[in-house]
Amino acid sequence: MIFAATMTRYVARRFLGATLAMLAGLTLLVSLFDFIELLRRAATRPDAGFTLVATIAGLRLPFVALQILPFAILLGGLLAFWRLTRSSELVVARAAGISAWGFLSGPVTVALLFGVIGTAAVSPLSSVLLARAERLDYAYLRASAGITALAGGRLWLRQADRGLEEQGVAILSGRPLSDREAARAGGGFAMTDVSLWRLSASDRPLARIEAPRARLLPGRWVLEDAIAFNADHNAGPKRDLAFPTELTPDRIENSFASPDTLSVWALPGFIAVLEAAGFSAVRHRLHLQSLLSLPLLAAAMALLAAGFSMRSSRRGGVAQMIGAGVAAGFMLFVLDKIANEFGEAGTLPVYLAAWAPTMAGLLLALALLLHLEDG
């Protein structure tokens, strides 16, 4: 019993060392290519120097590490288990009566911890730093910036209209002011050339409001010098109108930004607000479920690595098995991307799109280990 526990800890340490080395190596390699691409884009921007490019690449490091984590676990596991098999340590352990399920509990626990830390700790850090990197990228390296580049410079917002007797919808359209222009206009988020349509729950037009300017204040839109047209197309007098809203400048920006820039802890609340405001939250729901499935995916990758690399070297075909393990990891990556595309398009339910690749990898790993141990 003591030997089994010692063996489990030993295998877990070897697995941990190989995974950390693989994670660091792959993260630096991918970040290097990202840095080179940023340098290429900065070559035509005189105000983007080497320090700025290095800052953006550095801010993206946690995000890159989080994306690479499952593959680092797979490749690190393949390396660790292959070394243990080549040195016959696993053969001796199994000859001593320790099953594969016994000494694999250590590496699986390590992989689960990697996934939990990635979801609970690295993800919030990654979201904050990635949001900062994206702002710098938009400000210095891209020709157009954020939401102002949409629809020819016009921004379209949809939110619930709680001022109606029956639950309705309001659609707001306008041209967002830049930060400098908004500061001259009194600060805050503002738009010009604003149109607002109020619709009933059955999409029946109820009113239209035209205003030269609208400012977003806490809990309400203020439409300046607005003219309201009712369903009979009769115009009212020009006056300032207040329209209730749950939107904030950050929520508007985040609704168009990548879900990767939001912390896993902030996503549930943001999804609720986003849907109450009338935005689609499919991408954010999919990202949240993907983060929640990361610990199980990490464990599946550890088991998959064991299943493809614990073949005895005396039986031959070790290189082919390890190559098959790498190919299986790549296929899981492709399956995950395809499932995400179907999930974002609404073809697959969000839970199925997020969890199906993870469950497929876990079932494949368990089948391989059952064949190896009992077959």
Automatic annotation (TrEMBL):
It is a multi-pass membrane protein. Its main location: membrane. It is found in: Cell membrane. GO terms for biological process: lipopolysaccharide transport; transmembrane transport. The keyword Thylakoid does not apply. It comes from the Bacteria. Keywords: Cell membrane, Membrane, Transmembrane, Transmembrane helix. NCBIfam families: LptG_lptG. This is Lipopolysaccharide export system permease protein. It comes from Belnapia rosea.
